[in-house]
Structures are given as structure tokens and as C-alpha cells.
Amino acid sequence: MTSTTLSAPASAPERTAPARGPAAARARRKRVLHWIAVHSVAIAVALLFVLPFVFVFLTSVMSDSQAMSGDLWPDAWHWSNYKEVFETPGFLDWWRNSLLYAGLGTLFTVCSAIPVAYALAKFRFRGRRTAMLLVISTMMLPPQVIVIPMYLVWAQQFHLSGTLWPLIIPMAFGDAYSIFLLRQFLLTIPKEYIESAKVDGCGEFRTMVKIVVPMAKPGIAAIALFQFFYCWNDYFGPQIYAAQNPGAWTLSYGLESFKSAHSVNWNMTMAATLLVMAPVIIIFFFAQKAFVEGVTLTGVKG
Amino acid sequence: MAISLSNPARRRLRTLGFLSPWLVGFSVFFAYPLIATVYFSFMHYNQIKEPTFVGLRNWKYVFEQMPLFGPALWNTLWLVVIMVAVRVVFGLSLGLLITKIKTGAGFFRTAFYLPYLAPPVAATVAFVFLLNPGTGPVNEILSSIGISGPNWFNDPDTAKPSLVLLSLWGIGDLMVIFMAALLDVPKEQYEAADLDGAGPFAKFRYVTWPAITPIVMFAVVTGVVQTMQYYTQALVAGKVASGVNIGPGSVIQPGYPDHSTLTVPQLVYQMGFQNFNTGAACVLSLVLFAIAMAVTMLLMHKRSGLLAAED
């Protein structure tokens, strides 16, 4: 599929002679009413989507007592709440662990997905369809199904429980979702480019590095982003492997203990909550296009 | 290469080389643990002493005696049916709305999409606060217009609907998929329908719906598979709403209030990592696996765009 541009089709100004008469006036009135109806609904719905962020933010700068009161607007703006969150013991470690997990996990995923997706998209070999079916089956597998034997291996054979490595290392061996997504993208690259590289005497590997990777940048960006977010948001993984060792907690996992430690301070909890959300939201604003590319790739026929 | 190979053999080796990361990953991180899960489901194993074979005892225990299995399965299936249905309807409605917006489309798209990116833990903690019956802003607003709000996450009857509400806040991914599908419907068909004098409902029924059915299928199936794994939001909502001072790792009865938010994956965790009942945990895993696989088969059968673009 061609990358769907996300701009909704603008209504082209009608290039007809200025319409006259009651029928034209009625049509125009109908159009205006339609515009008003659509946009009022949109504004109402958008408010519902944005307000949670607004309330979370407003609560995060309230005083302890006001945050408990159900008030909507802070009497005084306590920016120091954020400073206090950062001074919470361990908070900076969680930050570091989250970045480590998400950063390395993304790097490993991208490096392992490129050759596999390339082979699945462009090579002809027996069992290609079966391989694809297996990739999709892995994608559909709830992580809880295999977690117990996996945990036993990491904990008993490798003594790596209490670290994030059991979550990071597997990503060097292909993540099904990323392989699937990247393959869908690579299918759209015309064969001719690859063939002409071969005519010029490139081997498969050089073709991949020199031709395919540069052409697949948007697809690669999409899987990198998705994987980064997946790791950043992951709760179940750190709960399994890092629970006993607070030094290995990630932000997503630590947030809950933060809530327990500040059980009555909704303002602190909301400040921390916003800080956990902030990186993904900032990244999104910088990489909006890559995202949309990825999301539409999943659901749209190649 | 020192050894000269015939061309097909070389090609096969090269294919294997490119696929090797995934071949290793598939065997080590998928096939092996799956077989081991089946193996442990017939064993008594407390993760300290050597496992001993007990036949079908774990299976019998889960299906006949385990007190929480019924509620957990019921909650999971409830969420699979209701949450997926509501999400698909809402996602499609938003997709339709966004394709009709002519002014400020970029702003609206971002507003609808952004919450989807919020980490599930953060979004859940935020919602538990917003919907907090005593001090939350939502009930505060409701009472100011004369409505006494429900107890949301603190009432067994409304806890699951509250989770559905939370999932609707994160509808962005579905919205974008539907939007792309709606924009791909050929315009000529709408024009033809216009000439035939079709109203908006007839247009949706005879033009839009047939064109987007595969995507709706896709959304339903992936939604079911995702909801089968529904874990983080339910667990965190229960813990935070219960207000108990619990750090991570502490053992509590999950599913507050009254097991109404207990899902099968939570039970897997509880059995495997808190009660050290490996056998029962593996049986529960396989129940999840069976349902997820059944849905996947359905998907393969329907070919809803997932395996399209073969050649």
C-alpha cells in the first residue's frame, strides 16, 4: 500500500459558476449545518480525551491537602512537587533502567528484524508461508503462556532474575511483531531495485545494507518506535524478573510503589504519572509520521 | 568459501543465515517454553524440590476445585466480549468522525490519538484518581450538575465498565486503522451512491461497510487476542483503588473489589510466582493459549489482511 497520507481530504472549493437560486442556497445551508454538527461533536469528544491530562496536571501542582479535596483548580502552584518526585530515592535509577531496557531492546529488535523480514519478504524458499504463519502465531501468543518455564531457565540456569537482561536478550533473536510489520513494509519495495543491485554484483547482504535498509527507513523507524514504547510501557516483564530487586525497577513498574509510598499524596503520584507519560508523548510529537505509517501498516493490506 | 556448493544449496544456506536470529528465537523463546509448559502441567513442582509426575491432578484442580478460576475466566471472557465490541464500535465512530472533519483535522487526530500512547500503568493510576469516588474530579463535576456518580473502580458492578472506559481513552490505534481504511474506500462509489439518491445510512450500509469489513475483522481478532492478555490495567486498577499500602512484590488477593477485576493472566502470576504452584499456573497458561490459538486459526481462515500481499 502507499503510505496513507493522514490529511483528511480537504473539500475542494467548487469550481462552478456561483450558484444562484433557492436550491443552491439550501444546499449551502445544508453544508454549513453539516460542518457545524461535525465540528461540535469533534470538539466535545476531543475535550473528553484531553481533560484527563489536564486534571492530572492540575492535581500534580496542588498542595497535599488540596489534592485530596476534589478541587479542580490549584489554589497555589506547587512546582516543587516535581522536584520532590525526582528526589524520591530510586526514582532516577528507574529512569535509567527504563532507558536501558527500551534503548537496548529497540536496538536489538531492529538489528534482528531487518534480515529476517527481508528474507521473508523477498526470498523464495520452501516453507516460506509456514514460516510466516509461525511468526504470526508467535505474535498472537499471550506472554503469560510461556513465562513460567522461561523464568525458571533465566533464574535457575543463568541466575539473572533481579535484572532486566532476561527481557532484553531475547530481543536480539527476533521479535515477531516487528518482523511481521517490517516484512509488510518491505513487500512494497519493487523487485527491480534489488535485482539491479545484484546485477551490479552485490551479494544478498550488501544489497540489504546498501539498498533495502535505506529504502525501508520509514518502516524501520516505525518498528523502532513501537518497540521503544513497548519496553517503556512494559509492566509484566519487570514484574516477573525485577520485582525482588528495586535497583532494577523501571519507571512503569516503580510508579505503583510510588503510589504506595505516597498513598495519600495524589499530587505527588500525579506528578510522577505525568513524568512517566512525558517521554512517549514528546517522542510522538517528533516522530508522528513514522507512527502513523506503522499503525496503518498493521491493518491495511500490503 | 573453501567448499564449493551447488547453487541451490548455497541459496538455502543463505536463507537460513538471514532467518537464523528468528529460528533461534523461535526455538528457544517460543517452542521450548511451550513444550515445557505442557510438561509442567502434568507435574507437581514448587520450584524447590524436583518435579514429580502427578498425571491430570493439576488439570482437575484447576477445572474442579480452584476457587478463583471461575470468576477469573468469567471476567476475562466478559472483557473479551464487551470491551472488544465497545472498542470497535467507538473506534469506527471516531474514524468516521475524523474523516468528516474539515477544519483543524491535525489537532483532532492528535487529541484522539495521544492517550493511546500513555503507558498503561500511568493511564490506570490517572484514571483511578480521576474516578475516585471520594475525591476524584469526575464525581465532583457530576455532583455539581446534580448527578451522584457511581463508585467506579470501588464497586464490583462498575469496576469492569470502568476498565472499559479506560480502554476507550486509549482507542487511538484503532481509530487510525479505521481512518486509513475509510480513506481507502473509492470515492467513485460514493458518487455513484449519491446519484442513486442514497442517504447517509444507505451509503454506510452498501458502500462503506463492505469495503471495511476485513479491517473490522482484523480489529476484532487482534482485540480478542489482546484482551485475552489483559493484565496490567486490571491489576494496577485493583491495587491502587483498594488503597492498601502495597509495594510491588507484596502478596495480596488480586481482583479488588470482590475479584471483579481478576483476569486469567493475573491468576497465572499468582499461582506461578506467589503460591509456587507451577503445575496449576501452567494449566491456566494453556487455557489462555488454547483460546488465543482458536482465535488465530479463525483469523488465518478469514485472511483478514494479515497474510495478504503474498507475492
UniProtKB/TrEMBL annotation, chain A:
What is the membrane topology here?
Multi-pass membrane protein
Q: Name one Pfam family in it.
A: BPD_transp_1
GO CC annotations on file: plasma membrane
Tell me where in this chain the ABC transmembrane type-1 domain is found. 95-287
> Which residues lie in Low complexity bias regions?
12-22
Where does the record place the region Disordered?
1-22
InterPro entries, from UniProt?
A: MetI-like (IPR000515), MetI-like_sf (IPR035906)
What are the UniProt keywords, alphabetically? Cell membrane, Membrane, Sugar transport, Transmembrane, Transmembrane helix, Transport
Q: Which Gene Ontology BP annotations are present?
A: transmembrane transport
The record's comment on protein family reads: Belongs to the binding-protein-dependent transport system permease family.
Please state what the protein is called.
Putative sugar transport inner membrane protein
TrEMBL record, chain B:
SUPFAM superfamilies linked to this entry: MetI-like
Q: Does the keyword Metal-binding apply?
A: no
Could you tell me the keywords of this UniProt record? Cell membrane, Membrane, Sugar transport, Transmembrane, Transmembrane helix, Transport
Membrane topology type: Multi-pass membrane protein
Subcellular localization, as worded in the UniProt entry: Cell membrane
One Pfam annotation, family name? Answer: BPD_transp_1
- Residue stretches making up the ABC transmembrane type-1 domain: 73-299
Origin superkingdom:
Bacteria
Please give the start and end residues of each transmembrane region. Answer: 21-42, 76-99, 111-131, 163-185, 206-225, 278-300
Q: Name one GO biological process term.
A: transmembrane transport
Give GO cellular component annotations, separated by semicolons. plasma membrane
Principal subcellular localisation of the protein:
membrane
Instruction: Please name the InterPro entries in this protein's record.
Output: ABC_transporter_permease, MetI-like, MetI-like_sf
Entry similarity comment: Belongs to the binding-protein-dependent transport system permease family.
Q: What protein does this entry describe?
A: Putative sugar transport system permease protein
Whose protein is this, by species? Answer: Streptomyces formicae
What lineage, starting at the top, does this entry show? Bacteria, Bacillati, Actinomycetota, Actinomycetes, Kitasatosporales
